[in-house]
Amino acid sequence: MTNIKDIARLAGVSVSTVSRVLNNYKYVANDKRESVLKVMEELKYTPNKNAIDLIRGETRTIGVILPYNNNPAFDQLLNGILNIALENDYLITVLPSKYSKEREMEYLQKLKSKLFDGIIITSRANDWETILPYSEYGSIVSCEYTQHTEIGCSYMDRYSSFLDAFQLLKNKGHRAVAFTTARLESNSTKQMIAAYNEIFGELPPDYHISDCHCLEDGYGAAKQFLQLPERPTAIYANGDEVAGGMYLYAKSEQMKVPADLAIIGQENQPVGIGLGLSTVDHQLTKIGEQACSLVIKKSREKVKIPYRIVERGSV
Q: Would you state the CATH architecture of domain 4-56?
C-alpha cells in the first residue's frame, strides 16, 4: 500500500513537504507541489482523512445540534452556518435532536472523541451545567445568550423584541391580544408570557396556544382564538408560517386584515413577505453566521445581533 514515504521518494521531496501538500499549506514551492500531486495522481493515492486530521490536530468539521430539520427558523440559522463554513472550507454535520436530552449527550460525547472541532447548539434540552464539562474538548457555541464564560454565543435580545411587538400592537389600539408559541416549557415561551404581562397585564388563559410550528397550526390556532366569546383583535404568531395560516383562516371567514384582525409574525420569511405580514425579524441567518465564525476562531465571545420590526399592512 502506497504511503507518503513512497510519494516523497518518487517526487524527489521530503516527507514533510508531502505532508504540507496534503494539508494544503500555502508555503510550498509550486514545482514541488506539482511534483507531489502528479505522483499522487499516477499512483491513484487517496489520503487517509483521519490520519491527516490526527497530524494537524483538527477535523475541520463542525457539528450543529438542530432540534428540527423542517422548520423555517432553524433553516435560517443553518443557512447562516453553512455560508461561513463554505467560505472557510469547513464541513458541517447536522445533528438532529428533537429536544432529546440523551441524543444531545451522545453528540457532545462525539466532541469529546474529537470527531468535531466544535459544536453549535441552535437550541437545547439539557441545562448548561450538564453541557459545560464538554467545553474542554472543543468549542461549544450557543445561539441563545448564556452567561457561562466557557461557552461562546451568538444571540438576540428575544425578550426586548417581544416587548416591542406587544407595545406596537398596544400603540395601534389593541388590548385583546393573543399569541402562539412553539414549546410550552421553553425559555422563549416564558419570556413571551413575561413580556405580555408587562405590556397588557395578566394573560387570559385562552389567549395562548403552544405547539405551533407550521401554516396548518396557525390556521387551527386562529380558528380557536376567533371562536372565543371575547375574541382577540390581534395575534402575535411565533413564526411567519404560523402567521400565514392565521391570515388564511381570517380570509376564509371574510375578515379584513388588519381592520378585523391584526397579525404579526416572526423571522421575515417568504410567506410573510408574500402576504404582506408585519414581522419581528431576529436576523437568524446572521446569528448562524456569527456562531460558525466563533467556532472557527475558537472564541468564547458573546455577540449580540440586533433584531428589527418590519411593519407591513397586517397591523
A: Orthogonal Bundle (1.10)
